[in-house]
Amino acid sequence: NSRGTSYLLKDSVPITEFSASGPFEGHDLLRRGFTSVKNELLPSHPLELSEKNFQFNQDKTNFATLRNIQGLHAPLKLQMEFRAVKQVQRLPFLHSSNVALDTLRGNDECIGFEDILNDPSQSEVMGEPHMMMEYKLGLL
């Protein structure tokens, strides 16, 4: 009797109406994944976002100034040099100092926070060299 079954389905309520809403809504792990407190936190200080993007903003300002003074070719050439220097790295298990990038930016003679408190021997990046290299090459 197919008519009886269709009659039951016609009067059924969609499942979406059973979902909780409001302040007591449950978190659906299958659809939304695990919650992360880090993603829900707001910056603790108004200047935190500005400090996080300081180098990017400074480079953008320098490129705009260089473009106004020397033309379009100068910032493009400098950006190509930045990209080329960023691609040269040591092996993944060794700390890379990025001396060439600091020289291009003019930070090679400045002593900053990261120069003193960024000791590579205390770095958390150190690991099994063979496994890190295989991961980088896509063998794992």
Secondary structure: elements and pairs:
Blueprint: H1 2-10, H2 29-32, H3 37-40, H4 48-52, H5 54-70, H6 73-87, H7 99-105, H8 113-117, H9 129-137
Helix pairs in contact: 5-6
Compact description:
This protein is 54% helix and 0% strand. With 140 residues, it is mainly α.
Quick one: how many beta strands? 0
What is the beta-strand fraction?
under 5%
Q: Tell me, rounded to a whole number, the average pLDDT.
A: 76
Oligomer: single chain
* Rg from alpha-carbon coordinates: 27 Å
Based on Cα principal axes, name the global outline.
extended
Helix-strand makeup class: mainly alpha
Approximate helicity band? 40-55%
- Summarize the biggest pleated sheet: none
Key descriptive features of the protein:
140 residues; mainly alpha; 9 helices
Give a structural overview.
- The protein is mostly helical.
- The protein has a domain of 50 residues.
- It contains 9 helices and no strands.
- Helix 5 runs antiparallel to helix 6.
- The radius of gyration is 27 Å and the shape is extended.
- This is Proteasome maturation protein.
